[in-house]
Records
---
Amino acid sequence: QKEVEQNSGPLSVPEGAIASLNCTYSDRGSQSFFWYRQYSGKSPELIMSIYSNGDKEDGRFTAQLNKASQYVSLLIRDSQPSDSATYLCAVNSLSSNTGKLIFGQGTTLQVKP
Amino acid sequence: DGGITQSPKYLFRKEGQNVTLSCEQNLNHDAMYWYRQDPGQGLRLIYYSQIVNDFQKGDIAEGYSVSREKKESFPLTVTSAQKNPTAFYLCASSIVGTGLAFYNEQFFGPGTRLTVL
């Protein structure tokens, strides 16, 4: 079992729709969760961090964390073609205390005009 | 402007050659990291350093070496022992907290794309 799993996609949504990206992780000691956006040929850009169960909203983005079920999700409201990118989920385990982030392989999102 | 710079943007290596990738940050971050990304895959950790003059191997350290002589700089050398070095190399940095403050938001440089000729 991979430590952090994401559906590679592509996930295709029409412009203006809600895109839902999901991520599951195996280490119950995980404490910090991150979503990065990566455009083709570019480096990852941090867009959301979440540390507590529940929802965290930032503009059109909402991160949702459920530690009991070991999943974290990212919702993108009013999706735009400029949101088309690969979204990487990353998890840090407090138990390791090494600063090591474990990345999923990423989900490719396509927003069609 | 605060940020992370990597150079060169593109690098070509001949068989048997060592090459060094540069990473500099002016964010005053203590921790720095090197990742490798292959097409269609996530990031894999090569080396990381949480303090000057100290570093640890990540998951795929074989064939790579690093140094951390200054807080701002964390160069990566890809040696001839790395048999399949063609990849996108990413440097990142973060603060180092303790306990529950150890959130570890990592910020990435623009990357170096290495190709073996």
---
Amino acid sequence: SQTIHQWPATLVQPVGSPLSLECTVEGTSNPNLYWYRQAAGRGLQLLFYSIGIDQISSEVPQNLSASRPQDRQFILSSKKLLLSDSGFYLCAWSVPGTGGNYGYTFGSGTRLTVV
Amino acid sequence: GNSVTQMEGPVTLSEEAFLTINCTYTATGYPSLFWYVQYPGEGLQLLLKATKADDKGSNKGFEATYRKETTSFHLEKGSVQVSDSAVYFCALLLYNFNKFYFGSGTKLNVKP
């Protein structure tokens, strides 16, 4: 069966420090991968999505970047965190070739607090 | 453009009350529609979906009917439980696209 792992679960980082959040998927090949952010009291914002290794699409200009060095690994990074980067970050995957019509499977999320 | 609009929360109900959470959408194509649920401190879980007009998605006592004429996908449950307390997200997916458009979420609080 397919599983998605996301870590760490919580993170407190000072302003200006770097960030690296990792997401891995098991039990499937060539998944579509996504990073979403949920700011406090707000909905989900798509940050990045990827349909293959080194194929990253950015949805919004921001202080973050994403990379996919391996087929089932998706990394969210920042060189210098801002206070506005605080939020709940969710990784998700969908079955390739279906357009996501079977829904996404989400990781358990990382709560990032920038202080 | 493509967007999803949900009713503002929080919604507070007593146990066994009837639930409706409104969701309407705007789409440039012919979307599939979804409801996701997020329990406190967790990621999102798929609750139900409908892929074409007049389809009804159902799961765990929740239902939603895809209404093309009113561009709506309202979530309903006949008798809510305390364990249903969560945030509910409506979402649309356009055919042949790889990304969802989510509503802002509606928080449901169910009191015993």
---
Amino acid sequence: DTGVSQDPRHKITKRGQNVTFRCDPISEHNRLYWYRQTLGQGPEFLTYFQNEAQLEKSRLLSDRFSAERPKGSFSTLEIQRTEQGDSAMYLCASSPRGVTTGDTQYFGPGTRLTVL
Amino acid sequence: AQSVTQLGSHVSVSEGALVLLRCNYSSSVPPYLFWYVQYPNQGLQLLLKYTSAATLVKGINGFEAEFKKSETSFHLTKPSAHMSDAAEYFCAVSENFGNEKLTFGTGTRLTIIP
């Protein structure tokens, strides 16, 4: 396994701009999660995909946020009209869907977003 | 609803001393419990997990944790701290059905004193 990768690692943008992040999960992992981590806090769940289907979205995910996972492989997270409150680390994780539950979620290195 | 409380946002121990990081959970259904470690500017790495098998779980790097249902706790321990253990540690809970999203605590920063 090459691990979960995320691109870019860092993004600095001005308020009001749109940004898009990419996550490449471990191959053959059919579950993909997005979390957001602000300074001094633990990660918070944003959304979840089972293959290409987005099955759950947190109330944290406002209308300015959209996530996709075309073809059930990589995923993108787009934030439109960024606000300073969007500044955070955005983490992606993937897990297999085995016979038993409690599968480990493997995390990528994250994308750190700074909104000026 | 599920939640995690980590007592002590900062813990300092001397090199070679016992490490004890506390985690209490709340869950309306039997939980799965996890400990993750995060080094600066990196993602999270799984240390160990409890998924309703043995209550004493052994993980990587000499860490272990014990699930105590009566105390709703899942404390992380290591007999002898090493300098390389300095990091942020997160306890997390998930429900044993559905999408199994993780709910994390606020983390404990572990500092090792030489």
